[in-house]
Design brief:
Layout: H1 2-20, H2 30-51, E1 55-62, H3 72-84, E2 86-93, H4 95-108, E3 114-117, H5 123-128, E4 132-133, H6 136-141, E5 157-158, E6 161-162, E7 164-166, E8 173-178, H7 179-184, H8 193-205, H9 229-232, E9 248-251, E10 256-259, H10 264-279, H11 292-300, E11 306-310, H12 314-324, E12 330-332, E13 337-338, E14 341-342, E15 345-346, E16 352-356, H13 363-374, H14 376-383, E17 391-394, E18 397-400, H15 412-415, H16 428-436, E19 441-442, H17 452-473, H18 481-492, H19 494-503
């Protein structure tokens, strides 16, 4: 655009020079006047066309491309073009390689204007390094985003400035269970930790699948303890295996940063409970080898009666469970009374879009595009597309243009947007699951990126925690090994992290 305009100026200057060198002013004739008028008109039209030229914006989305129905990215591009006169370039990068590829892009100096990922672990460093541009004033003045609960921006803020807009209002991870097993065994939905133990034990020992074999577990999860928060929060105020904060949390009663390992008695109680499940064959004996896919497969195929996952993902898992056994029915356990209230607690966090310094010079339009993509209209474009193009509605059923897209659609991606989204058809199971888990506690965000010690030693702490917890659960180390863990974490600066966070 700039090059084209500059070229035009150079040409005009050269023409002017030629006229000047011709030896005096040209005679003012009607033909000359008409020619001048045409030139002026053409120049005006050229200027108007230039002003209407579209703006290119580059977006990188951290998602497995297989999650998106066919053609939805094109629909998003069309919507953005129509609304903002923006040419959208979209890179859908798989979750497994997203961070690596984005780092390579940033190192090269050529990277997207907008990036989508979870909360940036070192948001402070990204801001201080000049990578991100703020969204605060936009949020304050936008008709839609200004109505959002300020708490949803906690994980995406630094020093009072908002940098990310969430795409999903997080609800807590939950404990999925086989409701048909519960009914078959004549059990009630558990409301306490002891009752949960009895239900999980029955799933493991009382032949819930009716095949006459001792081949089921009560509970399974992956080796990295992904999404196991509702289990740990039966005993603790925080989650020692939070993928971002590993035991650090903001105590809602004191509003002070703390770590679960500062409370040895509570941690010991939790670890003894998990070890009991393992030793009695209630917890999957192979959990130390499980990928997240392994753990899910064991649950949906009837090898385990309970599994942990975000409640918004229940419909795809019900479909998988029903494919393995038409009688299979799943739901989430409701809030269970633990040591510190109920176990469903959550720090606001989810997928979020950020504006990078690559958008400098076009920040205003880029912010509008970012907000559109993160909001209800963009979510609809991305996750389902457009009726008559990617799908059609027949009664209460979605008929997909590409039948394979039926496996990709998850109404949770729409229903949990920060703003209301109309589903193409009702989601009875998801809505029932959301109702079942109502009343969860929203706890204050812990912003570990405000701690230099955590930024330096967080990875080492994570290793100590995962290895130590696993050793105690499987009986490789006695419960007294917890003392060694706490000593090591303190030597790495656990208390210093808390002090640094509380000084901010």
């Amino acid at each position: 655009m700039k090059r084209r305009l500059l070229a035009g100026v150079c040409v005009a200057a050269m023409l002017g020079l030629q006229v000047g060198c011709s030896g005096g002013a040209a005679p003012t004739t009607q033909a000359a006047l008409d020619q001048k008028a045409e030139e002026t008109k053409a120049a005006g039209e050229s200027k108007e066309a230039a002003s209407q030229e579209s703006t290119p914006i580059w977006v990188a989305i951290r998602e497995d491309i297989n999650n998106f129905p066919e053609g939805t990215m094109d629909i998003l591009k069309e919507s953005v073009k129509e609304k903002f006169n923006v040419d959208l370039k979209i890179d859908c990068i798989s979750q497994s390689s997203y961070e690596e590829k984005l780092n390579v892009m940033i190192a090269s100096g050529s990277f997207p204007d907008i990036i989508r990922c979870e909360a940036i672990p070192r948001l402070g460093e990204a801001v201080e390094g000049g990578l991100l541009l703020p969204m605060t004033e936009f949020v304050k003045n936008d008709a839609l985003w200004s109505t959002a609960d300020p708490v949803i921006f906690g994980k995406y803020s630094y020093k009072g400035e908002i940098y990310g807009l969430p795409t999903i209002l997080d609800r807590p991870d939950s404990i999925y269970y086989r409701t048909d097993w519960l009914e078959k065994l004549g059990l009630s939905v558990p409301t306490t930790t002891d009752e949960l133990y009895e239900v999980l034990k029955a799933f493991a020992k009382n032949d819930p699948d009716g095949n006459g074999q001792d081949d089921t577990y009560g509970l399974t999860f992956p080796s990295n303890y992904l999404q196991t928060a509702p289990l740990w929060q039966l005993f603790l105020k925080g989650n020692p295996l939070d993928p971002n904060d590993f035991g650090f949390y903001t105590d809602p009663e004191t509003n002070q940063a703390d770590n679960v390992f500062n409370h040895k008695e509570d941690m010991a109680e939790a670890l003894i409970w998990f070890n009991k499940l393992y030793e009695e064959g209630i917890l999957d004996k192979e959990f130390v080898l499980n990928t997240k896919e392994d753990a899910e497969n064991k649950f949906v195929t009837g090898k385990a009666g309970a599994w942990v996952k975000g409640l918004m993902f229940i419909e795809p898992r019900q479909a998988k469970a029903a494919a393995a056994n038409p009688d299979a029915k799943i739901l989430s356990f409701p809030n269970i009374e633990g040591k510190y209230g109920t176990n469903l607690k959550i720090q606001p966090m989810g997928g979020s879009y950020y504006l990078t310094r690559s958008a400098q010079g076009k920040e205003d339009i880029a912010r509008q595009v970012l907000a559109y993509i993160a909001g209800p209209e963009g979510a609809t474009d991305i996750w389902i597309g457009k009726e008559g193009v990617t799908y059609n509605i027949e009664g209460d059923k979605i008929n997909w243009t590409n039948p394979d897209d039926a496996k990709k659609y998850n109404p949770g991606n729409l229903l949990l947007n920060p703003f209301p989204v109309d589903l193409p058809v009702p989601s009875t199971l998801l809505e029932a699951n959301m109702k079942e888990t109502e009343g969860y506690e929203m706890v204050p965000s812990i912003q570990t990126w405000n701690s230099p010690t955590y930024n330096e030693k967080g990875a080492d702490m994570k290793k100590v925690i995962i290895e130590g917890i696993t050793k105690i659960i499987i009986g490789e180390e006695p419960i007294e090994y917890l003392d060694t863990m706490i000593e090591t974490l303190n030597s790495l600066g656990m208390k210093e992290v808390c002090n640094e966070l509380n000084s901010k």
